[in-house]
Design brief:
Apoptosis, Tumor Necrosis Factor Receptor Associated Protein 2, Chain A; 1 helix; 3-stranded mixed sheet; mainly beta; disordered C terminus; TRAF-like; about 5% helix; single chain
Length: about 130
Amino acid sequence: MAFAGASLVTDGKLCASTMSAIDSGADSGYHLLVVEGYSRTKDTTPNGEWIKSRPFIVGGRRWTIDYHPNGVSSDNEEFISVLLVLRDDVEQNVEVQYAFSFIDQPELRVPKHIRQKRTRLLLQVL
């Protein structure tokens, strides 16, 4: 799997010096989203709001990760929500497989904490 860039969130904001828009040139890749100071990020980002990663390119498409430290809606404000977002205009459905995982906390790498989507059809998003 090819490296497709990294985004650093610090003090509740995306760090401007983060590498971005790396084209992995492959049909599969990964983007590293690093959250430094999670507690501060959780305190400063209200429920329903998010921090968008730097764009990255995998499979010839431009993507971002939307990180919601307090959930997407009031129904899940006790949880972290992470969404893969297709940022390109497309005329046809795009089929993707993706997974999110914690790389530095092995105890959280269990299905109870991480939901994985095997296949999803995406239309133009944003």
